[in-house]
Task: structure prediction
Amino acid sequence: MLRRAPSSFEAGFHAIRSELAVPTSFPTPVLEAAVEALPASVPRVDARHLGFIAVDPPGATDLDQAFAAESLGNGFRVFYAIADVGAFLTPGGPIDLEARERGTTLYSPDLRTPLHPPIISENRASLLPGDDRPALLWTIDLDSDGLPTAARLERALIQVREAISYEEAERRIAVGDPAMELLKTIGTLRQQQEVERGGVSLNLPSQEIVEQDDSYTLSYDQSRPVEGWNAQISLLTGIVAGRAMAEAGFGILRTLPPTRDQDLRKLRRQAKKLGVEWPDDVDYPDMIRHVEPTSPATNAFLLQAARSFRGAGYVSFNGELPELHQHGAIASIYAHVTAPLRRLVDRFGNELLLAIYADAEPPAWAIEALEELPSEMGRARSRESALERATVDFAEATLLQPHIGSTFDGFVVDLDPKRDRATVQIAEPAIVANISPTGRTLAEDITLVLDDADPVARTVSFTVR
Result:
């Protein structure tokens, strides 16, 4: 595995953050307001008796969600606690205005740039275990097939019993832990509902920079089954939230255009060329669901499938529902509401939903924000994507620089003649490189010679041997 000293990386990460104007601290007025911020004194349901468990990556301290559930005999009741960030913020105050400038928490390999000051996001509003916490409590009843039959949202006082990693959650499922078995059961039912809706979950590995042995390296992420079950609880909540907004006639939705018929026809042709069997009677979502990224051909196919979904965004409304109001991959109306510590839009959505479920007038400040939120989130997402791409490009060049002249084995995962490039995936290290498309075919095994690697320009260049 290729290695470089950590200092080789961290100076570059800092330079990227400067280039993209990623903030590294909070203005003094924001920090002062955060120190004074205490949860608003409002009526709360006492839900401390529920055995909430937060399932997150190891070491996480900004805990947005915690899960509990019970069997009802003819179905299930899901309790989903969400951090009540809105209880700590004054609309139009320093913390609120700063969050609207940032939009999202940003992640660099060596630094997390939070949406809110850490005293809020990693302490007072975070659903840390062991203490009483203000929260937004979703209670969602499901029938025996996993379909929602009733829901409500209210402010509550909760206590998270413990926070565990995905690995620990899997271990507990294996030994029959009742709480985690319920997560698996409900998550599996919701996955089946996704199938019946025509939803799509792409199982495509992506590059990630990981800290390892006091340095950094690149690898392809490997998701665990429990991550999918846990994600289904969040998706369920977002679907219920989106439907409630649609019925109320106001809100903000996460949208994605559906896959076009011509793109599906092209994808079927590519599957045939790649030797990936796609029976005529199997539809697109079911096909994608059963393809595993275990070979050059299936990796290339899944990347082509991912390209068929483009144009994700947000749409707000106050009155008539917009023409594009569905999320094509989820195959449902859907709203982001489960990550308010890390995503701006969720806080506003939750405040609107609290009013909806209380049959009350929505806060004027939240309604007034609807017009600007899609563009604010669009800018934040653009910066997030730019940061992710720049850090990966820099890590690739830094890892490869001492190995100019070396050869690497890979395979072609994408052809883009319009941009005059073919994309090659290298297994070790986890590099994705571009070469000339001339004469190349999808899934073709290929040996590359590294001609240059420039960490300052964040570029690498290969030729085919």
The chain has 13 helices and 19 strands.
